[in-house]
Specification:
Glycosyltransferase, mainly alpha
């Protein structure tokens, strides 16, 4: 029996001697996404509430550093253990998280744009091309190979609905034709949200419950509405009925999913998969801050600041626990499902 079919981090036959980097999951790029989203949220808060800009820029610097370290580490894994990378790429669940690297390329330019606009533009262009190609490849794969309902997890949302991240920075670049690119990305992302959400929700209703370490990925359900709101508002330059609907859907999903996140520490040990909660909450914080500025009501501002504070504490806790685990040589344990 090929153990890599059940676990993408299992050591393949004839693999070189095991090492810590052999167990490095590509999904850890979700930490970069979380830090980028949190940086953007704090920039909005700093401008709206006269908060220290240094907070946002420090988080942005951490995002850049995390991206560089992870690229170097995963590059070493690719060279020293290509079979492990291949097993991850063909795994029905883990393959979806290769999109976290691509989405990082789309979000980092928003962090870098005030400091290195040329570099930011180049990274965004690379990320946009890779995102469209990866989304096309995943949809083609789903339609070409019979899928198992048990494999339909919230991670399926990331590769295709991830196209919603293209306009986030793209709308800031001011290039000719980018409005059409943004509309294309919105169309693909919002359209595929509907069948994927329905399919995965049905799987959660009628199949066995997801393993406890994978439950943080349920927060991915929040991302299409929160990111969709920001991408749509950035494209049409106004908060209309559709934008308001996306925001309130995000708010409802947050109310449904937050108790599950709060229960997580008592149900299972920490795993790298917990990072799946970081970016959706950061995206929800951005949406809440933007909508509060539009609505102008005191309760909306309070809600947005509370969500930002909670997301900040969560991301800091995830970062500390991840770094502590890696320092203690626990990377193999942290990637277990």
């Amino acid at each position: 029996m090929d153990t890599t079919a059940a676990n993408p981090h299992a050591r393949p036959r004839n693999a070189p001697p095991d090492s810590a980097l052999h167990h490095l999951p590509v999904s850890l790029f979700g930490s970069v996404m979380s830090l980028c989203g949190l940086c953007m949220a704090w920039r909005i808060a700093a401008a709206a509430y006269n908060l220290p800009a240094l907070i946002a820029e420090t988080i942005g610097g951490a995002a850049v550093l995390a991206f560089l370290v992870l690229c170097a580490a995963y590059g070493v894994k690719l060279v020293r253990a290509p079979a492990a990378v291949h097993a991850e790429f063909v795994h029905p669940a883990a393959a979806n998280f290769f999109a976290t690297f691509i989405i990082s390329l789309l979000l980092l330019p928003a962090v870098l744009l005030p400091y290195a606009p040329t570099l930011a533009s180049g990274l965004w262009l690379l990320g946009a091309l890779l995102m469209v190609l990866f989304a096309w490849w995943m949809v083609k794969r789903w339609m070409s190979v019979r899928q198992q309902l048990a494999h339909a997890t919230p991670a399926w949302i990331v590769p295709v609905v991830g196209t919603l991240n293209i306009p986030i920075t793209g709308n800031l670049l001011g290039w000719p034709g980018l409005h059409e690119v943004a509309l294309f990305s919105l169309a693909v992302g919002l359209f595929f949200t509907v069948p994927l959400f329905t399919l995965i929700f049905g799987r959660l209703l009628f199949e066995e419950a997801m393993p406890a370490p994978q439950r943080p990925s349920l927060l991915i359900f929040l991302a299409p509405f929160a990111v969709g709101f920001s991408a749509y508002v950035g494209t049409v330059r106004q908060i209309d009925l559709l934008a308001s609907g996306l925001f309130y859907l995000a708010l409802f999903m947050l109310a449904v999913l937050l108790p599950k996140l709060l229960d997580l520490p008592g149900c299972c040990p920490f795993r790298v998969s917990w990072w799946a909660a970081g970016f959706p909450l950061a995206a929800a914080s951005i949406a809440a801050l933007t909508y509060a500025a539009h609505l102008g009501a005191a309760f909306a501002h309070v809600l947005a600041l509370m969500l930002l504070a909670f997301t900040t504490l969560l991301v800091l806790a995830l970062a500390w626990r991840t770094l502590h685990g890696i320092a203690q040589g626990e990377l193999k344990t942290l990637t277990l499902a």
